[in-house]
Amino acid sequence: MSTTVKFQKKYLAVAIASATLIAGQPLQAQDRAVLEEVIVTATARSQSTQDIPFNITAVQGDDIAAQHIVDTADLMRTIPGVTLIDRGYRNAGIANSLVIRGLNVDSGAAGDIGNNTVPTVSTYVDSTPVFANFILKDIDRVEVLRGPQGTLYGSGSLGGTVRYIMNKPNMDELGGKFNTSYSQTDGSDGDNVSFDGVINIPINDQLAVRASGGQIKNDGVIDYVNLYQLDGNGVPVVDGDGGDCISIDNATNSELTSNGSCYGSKKDADDVDIWFGRVSVLYQPSDELSVQLNYQKQHDEVGARRAVTNGIDGWGDSYGDYENGSTMLEPSERDVELANLEVEVDLGFATLTSNTSHYESEGSGWRDNTSLWVSGGRDWFDAWYTGMPRPVAHVEAGMKEEANIQEFRLVSNPQDGDKIDWVAGVYYMDQDRETSNYSHLLGLVEYGEASGWWLSSAFAHDMDFTLNRKETFTDMAAYGELTYHLNDTLRVTGGLRWFDNELTNKTAMNALLGQPANIPYEDYPTQKEDDVLVKFNVSWDVSESAMLYATYSEGFRRGGPNSVPTNGAFAELNPETVAQYGKDDVKNYEIGIKGGTDRIRYSADIYYVDWQGPQLNTATAWWGFFMAQNGDSARTQGFELELEAVITDNLNVIAGYSYTDAELTGDLIQPQTGAVISEDGHELPGTPQDVVTLGLNHTTTVLDNMTLSTRVNGYYQSSSLNYITDGQLQEEHDGFSLWNFSSTLMMEHWSVSLFAKNIFNEEGVTGSYPSAYMSHDTGANENYFGNNQRDYISSPRTVGMSVGYEF
User: Fold this and answer.
1) Residue 215: strand pairing partners
2) Which residues are CB-neighbours of 533 under 8 A, at least 6 positions away?
3) Helices in 98-207 by DSSP H: which ranges?
4) For the chain, how are helix, strand and coil distributed in percent, rounded to 5?
5) Distance CA 191, CA 185 (A)
6) What is the pLDDT of residues 408-467, one digit of tens each?
7) In 3D, which of 552, 566, 794, 586 has the Cα closest to residue 158?
């Protein structure tokens, strides 16, 4: 049995509860503050984080709430070694932008619906593998596992795994809590309000129900200042000869063929409205059996991007703070729901767990691509639709995904003196995914008819590109890990995962103006992959308070199909070379140490990751259609440090630092042309070299039954690149720091909190479309005055207060 020290299970709040009325008066020695033991289930059994022989961080739900964190972006900036490309709420529910240990080759500009590859970091809600980005309310803890987790967590866990563990119903007491908050954000003329609540109802000593839900409603900060005015059919209206705005139906042929558009604006366009709810029922008729049924749902509506435009517009005016130059609003919406049934049976020698899950996620979003059509070096509108005076390329993108998942897991119940403990399981997923993109050249039909354009009789609508892709993915796996205790201080663990997956794809696609309304689906070749992933770990308790470990682990990510035009006016060059992309895999080597006492806890590791065939979401060589391709190889290496300590009986600190060196180790080749688009040694995008996190929490008693808790949290990341190539898309983003503050007065049932996020109002850019790629550089005859260049910024300074009640 391990002799690693177990930290006393006691909250800091308990230790200070006996303080006198005078703030800061010393506590009695026997009530000194200590660190709470953190229990996680990352290895399929309950263990202290200090007993797990790899790098793991767990954030407790109470700490998440105390920091006023409600989404993944804010949370991950409190965890060392984790970065993300923050594109705001518009993309947060669709694109998993987490990066662990630098395993990323995706552009910081990507993130709209259409990406082919699955993420490099897998995410779980309890036991269900799903990326849902649920609002972080009524949550027990979040576990972040760094490094490949292929044996237990399967495909897509190249960089690591993030597990969101929700609170369970409690059969011991009736209780609940309610919270409301109000805040204002710099750059916004409006307000942010939210409310949420949870109630726990024990029906009897065998049955309990827990329900939670709420709403977040934030006004936006981004002003869209060059918006086309649209008629009832969504077509830009005409700027009349007298300066009046004229609808398409009322305009003369002369006005339709020669006049420009009417422009307007919308302030605070990127507003957010999110509803969420969860219900959980726990039935536990005996100590040997428990059955839990969970259902949760969330609906997101976002008005536009949280992105600013730099440079000038078509009139020569510079864009100001919080201004965006797109000529069309770019809203999005999403619905996601998850149902899960977990049955756990204690068989004596082992515990059998059955997890049955079903989830559905559906979303849509608009995208303004006009600058892509008229920017310098392209001028497609001028070349294809000469004289069109109101250019607009508007894309409707959509996705729908649903899956059924079944997993059976058997975990040994070791007894004193046992040398072996183990976990074994089988897993099955059946996933259906649909992706759509419809590109509209709004007003082109009316222009063609008015101008007598020779192509006008060939088309009855304005769609120039249609993509509908339907994918079915099945994954079967069997896995196991076994730990052998050589003695009380030395352990060896080995793990295997065999998998067999199959991906089928059929696509309906046309890239020609005047395409038929119903495009037949074409079946693409089925892709099958099977392999075995391996893990090996050795850990040694060098003392009662420190453990050394070494790990070799493997990760895998499935390949997939690409859908590119093979014929017609938009046929791609050598389309057979990009018909599909293959798997990628990693081999991870790391050594580390962790340990501590009841007042200090630390961990440190160094790692090297060899990445073969890294998948890159990119675009085709001629027309820029969505596709993915494999590079040759890459590697990441670095180290991670984390420290948590009780400085005084009233003050504790959490600090972390990670260093990441990530680069290609082979040339990246454009498969259609054979050209080298990025050379061996190129830095991987979205990966800052240095990341620092810091959290300070001071707690003191100010009056009878009143406690004041003050928190300061800081995050810093160094500069990072936006893209993997040295071309038009690449841009270097400056490093930045974000600081948050909160002060909460806690009473017996009530709490009142004042908080400020991003105190110094840093922009914090982590993704962009550079000016060279999406600027307004247009020919005078195209009459386009907008600008699609954009920088995705972190949420500006937000100051507010919240009130909570608990019983």
Assistant:
1) 195, 275
2) 150, 151, 496, 497, 499, 554, 555, 556
3) 150-153
4) 10, 50, 40
5) 7
6) 999 999 888 899 999 999 999 999 999 888 888 898 888 888 887 655 555 667 888 888
7) 586
